[in-house]
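User:
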Amino acid sequence: MLLTGITTTGVTVNFTNVLGITAVYTIDILDGSTVVDTFVINSPGASPSHSFTGLSPNTNYIARLTVAIGGVTKVCTNTVAFQTVSNALPCTNGMDVVFVLDYTQSMSGEITTIQNDIPGLVAGIVTSSGSNDYRLALVTADESNVVTPDYGSCIDYTDLPLNQRLSLLGTNNNYIYTTFWEIFQNNNSSSFTTALNLLNGGVDTTCINIGDGNGVAEPTDYAAQLAVAGGSVPGAFRANAAKYVVIITDQLPGGISDSFNAATWAGIQNMIAYANTNGIKYVICGVGSTLGATINGVYIQPWIELAQQTGGATTTSYLPTTISSVITGTC
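Assistant: Predicted structure:
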């Protein structure tokens, strides 16, 4: 059983039918031990599904499947817990926005596109925050098969505090680099602009040069997990502000294994649950936002699920004004 399209008040339940059209399936949505909604599917096809509405925001539920065939009824043991999307705070409370960039070879041109209109990227955030403070953070995600990134000798990198330049040896012997170039500060569009312009060889074409990638799926999801963890990198989200993570990528999420697999998808689901508990919205930008793959026989578009299930949005565009509009359109 797979759950998709989780919103503040709804969910879609999908499953595979291998018993033929004589089976009768009952889908129950439970709040604890209480059934709050139910739907019966007669004469099912190979891939039945049903969309439920009218659920409560930011609430834990369980989806349960029961099948009846040949006079025998059985309650399936693989129930699935989920949480509806929280009613996040309005942007006029002030906005905390973390930008997570896929900083690998194929993204060089796209990063240049973003750098060419940074005012257009942040203008909507500044305006939508109203009279309250906004705060911006800038994080890059990269990986390679060597201990230090390609820009590891750049003074702009080495001058960063150690807790802002993180390296992890992934499960496939790739090193994953998560770098916090700009941490949260009040109304920091100027320093955010300076940090973003340093990327992609922005100063002298060699430093800070673009990263590697060393594979297809990229660790942008892992970088985002670190970014929302709080603490000193990039600083905790404010409790009373609208919270956003904006991921810009041309690839699927790769977790720490350089692959979109069952473990990576489980990590995305954990990100969704954490975001809904803490009022965080995800906005996914770039051609990677619509990519998908098959996990255990089910085709999944992880970035779309992450955005939709947290009240965020997606766009295939890299244009700063479009990205800004998509972010503020979810306010």
